[in-house]
Every structure is written in structure tokens, then in C-alpha cells.
Design goal:
36% of the residues lie in helices and 21% in strands. The strands form 2 sheets. Strands 4-5-3-6 form a 4-stranded antiparallel beta sheet, with helices on one face. It has a two-stranded antiparallel sheet with strand order 1-2. It is built from 7 helices and 6 strands, in the order ααββαβαββαβαα. The chain has helices at residues 2-7, 19-25, 43-50, 65-72, 97-107, 122-130, 142-146; strands spanning 29-33, 36-41, 54-59, 81-83, 86-90, 112-118. It has 2 domains: 2-48 and 138-146, no CATH class; 52-118, Alpha-Beta Plaits. With 151 residues, the chain is an alpha+beta fold. A hairpin with a 2-residue loop joins strand 1 and strand 2 (36-41).
Length: 151
């Protein structure tokens, strides 16, 4: 319904704690933290400020996730995150990243089911701006109660 209204020229003010919803519906997004405006722009502008792409690797069954993380560590300024059979890392350089990742994982003997580049999300932007996750897990339901994020 909101998409239809906006497409018809109606201006809408949407407050939401679901950043994927803001990404889809809003032309301009304002990030408010503790009652203070900390960033504003289009979804793409906010993501471009972060500017880092992530590599996400889904490992074959039984593959050693720690070995995969160690093999990929040199491609990032941060340690890769391991979540079960998924290894994620923020890339230092996007160019040739998939080929380099495949080479490193192959050299380490790690089997891969899937691998993809992912651009930053608004959740990534919120985390970079505030130092905490956008789901409010650190703050309970504070966002819903105080309207901390607006789009």
C-alpha cells in the first residue's frame, strides 16, 4: 500500500525498525540514535559511505570452517566471521576477490558449496554508525518504544 501511495506522488513519513523495509520503501533515510540525527541520505548513499563488500562462503558438508577462515583472513582487515558452515568477511579489495578466494580455499583443501559477493546493507550501515546491531538485541525493545530509527 505504501509503495502504491509513493508511486502516485504521495509523500509519506515512515518510521520503522526494519531496515530492509526502509531500504525498499524510502527515498530518503534518516538514522536517529539516542534522539540525535546521525546520518541522512538515500539508501545507496548511506551504503556507499560504508563502501565495503563482503564475501560470503558456504562450505561443503564436513569442511573445516576454521581452515577456511584462516585461508581467507589475508583478504580482509578484519578476522572472518564463522557461523556454522558460513564464513563471511569484509573485503579489502573487491577486484578479483572471487578468484582469489577460490584459489586460497582450494590450496587449503577446503570444499565450497557456494560463494558470493554481497554489498553492504542498511543493517551494516547502522552497525557502523552506532556500534551496535540494528535489531536492537543490545537494547531490548527500546527502538520500538522510543522510535530511535526513522526512515
Amino acid at each position: 500500500m505504501i509503495e502504491g501511495l509513493v508511486a502516485g506522488g504521495t509523500t509519506a513519513l515512515l518510521t520503522t525498525q526494519y531496515l530492509d523495509e526502509a531500504d525498499r520503501l524510502a527515498d530518503t533515510i534518516a538514522v536517529i540514535d539516542h534522539g540525535r540525527l546521525i546520518a541522512e541520505g538515500s539508501s545507496n548513499e548511506l551504503k556507499d559511505r560504508l563502501g565495503r563488500e563482503r564475501l560470503e562462503v558456504r562450505l561443503d558438508d564436513g569442511a573445516d570452517a576454521d581452515a577456511a577462515a584462516a585461508a581467507l583472513a589475508g583478504m580482509s582487515n578484519e578476522l572472518p566471521a564463522v557461523d556454522g558452515a558460513i564464513v563471511r568477511l569484509t573485503l579489502r579489495d573487491r577486484r578479483g576477490a572471487i578468484v582469489e578466494a577460490v584459489r586460497r580455499l582450494s590450496d587449503a583443501g577446503v570444499g565450497v558449496d557456494d560463494l558470493a559477493l554481497r554489498g553492504p546493507t542498511l543493517d551494516d550501515v547502522f552497525l557502523a554508525l552506532t556500534g551496535r546491531a540494528a535489531d536492537g538485541s543490545d537494547d531490548g525493545d527500546r527502538f520500538a518504544d522510543e522510535g530511535e530509527r526513522a526512515a
